[in-house]
Structure formats: C-alpha cells, structure tokens
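Postdoc handover notes: sequence design on the structure in folder B. Input tokens:
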C-alpha cells in the first residue's frame, strides 16, 4: 500500500475508484465498502484509494469535543493496509479545508487530483462545508463531471447499522463482546511497557504497566479484562486491569497486564494487547490479601474463558 500524507502528494497514471471518511475503527461496516472498492479494481484498470483525515474533524471543528478514537493513526493505517487497498491518503484536516464547498471539493480534489472513475460510500455520507451535501448532490456532481456513484445501504452492511459511535458506547459500558462483533476483530491497545510500583509482584501477580503515548486513543471502561498479546511472535494470554488500584490508594489511572506463564523482561518493548472479555468492575478491597484472593478467582475465570476459544 502506498501512503500519502497530503492530497497534493498523490500521483497516479490510472483513474481511481475511491471512498472517503474518518474510518475510525475500520469496523465491519467500513470493510463492506472497502471490499467493494477492491472488487472494482481487481482487473488492474483502475487504482483503489482511501481518503481519510487527521486530526478527526470533530477535534478541529468542535471546540469542546473530547472525542476519543478507536484507532491511533498508525493502527488505522495498519488495518486499512490489511484490506488490500492500494493507496491511502491521510490529509491534515483544518478549518481551511473544512470551508471547501461541496463543488470545490469534488472538482479540485476528486476530479482534478484523484482522477476519479467511481466513488463508493456509505448510506449516510455527507460532505462539503458544514456537511450540507449528501448522496443526491454527489450523484448530480457525478453526472456533471463524468464519474459513477455507488451507495452501500445500511441494510447491506447489517440489519443494525454499525457505527464508530456505537462501538465507543459499547467500550464505555464494558460490553467488549459487542464492540468486538461490530469491529470484526478484538479491540486492541498499543503501548510501551514501563516500570510501575511493582506491587503486583509482591502478591504473585507481576504486571506490565502499559503507557499509551496517544492521548486521543479510546480507553475502555475501568475494570478487569481477559486479554491476549503477541510477544516476540508468541501468543500470550493474560488479564488486564484498567483503573486506579483503589485497594493500594492509587492516584492515577493505569493499564496493567498480568501475563500467564510468562516471566521475560519486556521493559521498553511496545506491545499490542487485544481485549477478549470483560470480567468485572474495579473494586476496593479491605486488604491486600482479599485483593489477592479475588485475583486468583479472576485468573480461574479467565483461564476457563480461554479454554473455550
């Protein structure tokens, strides 16, 4: 996949079949559109192209927006590459770009820059200044400038419409199974293993503390999860706690992973943690011994879940 960091950087000798959007999560609804794009370019006559933006438009246009994203920009790039798309354009989104009218966007970008042959979009796509243009406007532009427009209906994606907003809500509620069903893969976090207080080691549950650099990454509900990670090519299961460690009077939120049957030094490594199941909410115990007893029970529950995979 060729990666471009600006619309102006894109170059191709072929016409393109494209789609555009924020693609946060690259979920099963997105994949329906992306599959259609790659099917349309199988004969090699045209090139497939995805146009997406960073920062997320809501981060720029809504002053008090606190939106957290399902993917960091590197995670989204990796997920889009896996779909077989040939070209990815990640364009910097700013207020100036947002002021382009629908016709300016179509003429100067889709037609002049991308040499569009066809655009394939979701059922609810809106574009142009203040998002005033819709599918009907796009069809009219297609007739004027000579490109095709194909719309993917909500029914075609799924009986219930999938959206990044619904996935964020599921993560907020600890409904990781629903989030994963919508995504089509296990929700994951990427972070560096850093040193913590090492309290877990004293009760037989050593943990890897995970630091996520991107502050816009969506962190799911506080609590205990069954997780899986790949470390040096080996699949390792474990359980993860997101929260404040109230039993030992923790003062800031941490992400700590206890890996089963694993004892290597991974400080400084960046690892990817996939969330498989939500076990329970974080709670404060009357003593460290009671916490240890609960962790032993959590491990039994986690291993039972893993045994059914």
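Designed sequence:
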């Amino acid at each position: 996949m060729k990666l471009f960091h600006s619309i102006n950087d894109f170059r191709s000798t072929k016409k393109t079949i494209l789609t555009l959007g924020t693609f946060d999560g690259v979920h099963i609804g997105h994949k329906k559109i992306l599959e259609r794009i790659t099917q349309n370019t199988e004969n090699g006559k045209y090139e497939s192209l995805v146009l997406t933006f960073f920062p997320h438009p809501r981060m720029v246009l809504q002053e008090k927006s606190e939106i957290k994203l399902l993917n960091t920009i590197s995670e989204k790039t990796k997920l889009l590459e896996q779909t077989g798309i040939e070209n990815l354009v990640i364009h910097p989104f700013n207020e100036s770009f947002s002021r382009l009218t629908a016709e300016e966007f179509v003429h100067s970008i889709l037609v002049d820059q991308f040499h569009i042959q066809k655009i394939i979009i979701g059922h609810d796509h809106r574009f142009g200044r203040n998002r005033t243009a819709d599918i009907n406007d796009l069809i009219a532009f297609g007739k004027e400038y000579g490109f095709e427009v194909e719309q993917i209906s909500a029914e075609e994606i799924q009986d219930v419409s999938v959206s990044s907003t619904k996935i964020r809500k599921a993560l907020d509620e600890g409904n990781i199974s629903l989030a994963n069903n919508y995504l089509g893969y296990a929700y994951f976090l990427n972070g560096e293993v850093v040193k913590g207080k090492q309290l877990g080691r004293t009760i037989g549950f050593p943990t890897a503390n995970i630091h996520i650099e991107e502050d816009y990454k969506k962190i799911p509900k506080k609590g205990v999860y069954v997780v899986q990670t790949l470390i040096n090519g080996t699949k390792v299961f474990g359980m993860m706690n997101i929260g404040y460690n109230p039993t030992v009077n923790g003062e800031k939120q941490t992400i700590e992973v206890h890996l089963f049957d694993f004892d290597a030094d991974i400080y400084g490594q960046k690892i990817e943690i996939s969330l498989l199941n939500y076990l329970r909410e974080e709670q404060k115990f009357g003593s460290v011994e009671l916490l240890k007893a609960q962790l032993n029970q959590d491990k039994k529950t986690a291993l039972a879940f893993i045994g059914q995979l």
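Context for whoever picks this up: The chain is about 30% helix and 25% strand. Don't rerun without checking with the PI first.
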